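Thread title: Can someone regenerate the structure for this chain?

I was given the following input by a collaborator and told the matching structure tokens would be attached. They weren't. Posting the sequence so someone can regenerate them.
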Amino acid sequence: MFEIMWDALLDALIDGVKLLPFLFLTYLAMEWLEHRAGDKVNKHVQKAGKFGPLAGGVLGVVPQCGFSAAASNFYAGRVITLGTLIAIYLSTSDEMLPILISEKVDVRIILLILLYKMGIAVTAGFLVDLFYHKKEAEHAHIHELCEHEHCECEKSILKSALIHTLKIAIFLVVIAFGLNLALEYGGEELLTSFLSGRAILGPVIAGLVGLIPNCGSSVVITKLFLEGALGFGSMMAGLLVNAGVGLLVLFKVNHHKRENLAILGLLYGIGVVAGIVISLIAS
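Best answer:
Regenerated them for you:
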């Protein structure tokens, strides 16, 4: 019992430490934008944001645990568009790439998966911005993060960035600890039983599993695919939806709850629909 709890806590702390540099640099950049340039830089960033989904979709495939977390913070401050955020969420997926490489999967299959994720992410991102760009441009406000967190943004950029980083890091460690415990107590076997042999409902169920903000979900999805228990379309649905800790950070820092739920639903819908279409094409 104690050993399981210790392992769960240790894994959560290690994941939290890995995220610290990403979180700190993200908040430092946001504080600098707000203090040094304010609305002028926001307007320029929003104009450049027309190509944000392309950059987000391409960079998101790089296996870095903090990218989706950084994106969530930038979106909460309206530094990036909703389409860019969705593109990053869709293209990133925790442990998928390291597992595929370690299992010596054919390079062509790995490239196909990455190209699918990248293509779907970029396309979806541009389509989202096509419909929501004007709405987002009306309220660019990095400073709202400071107001909600009650930090001393006006006094010190460095201090404010540190406060934000520590608050989010502690929040993520606590959540990760709970998720690790759940997975240790039979959660991984439960995920396997739900995903295995579900040809029709595969993308729907895999998408739900992918929403779990823990590396365990991407590990299970990838391993089941490699074992032949999960189809390519179902695997893609789960990995497209799997945004790591990005969604957790979004619900923590973006205080528009209905908007967060809408983003969650949008991400899930895109991932599942894409997975079903891929399944139909592959069949």
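Confidence is low (pLDDT under 50) at residues 136-140.
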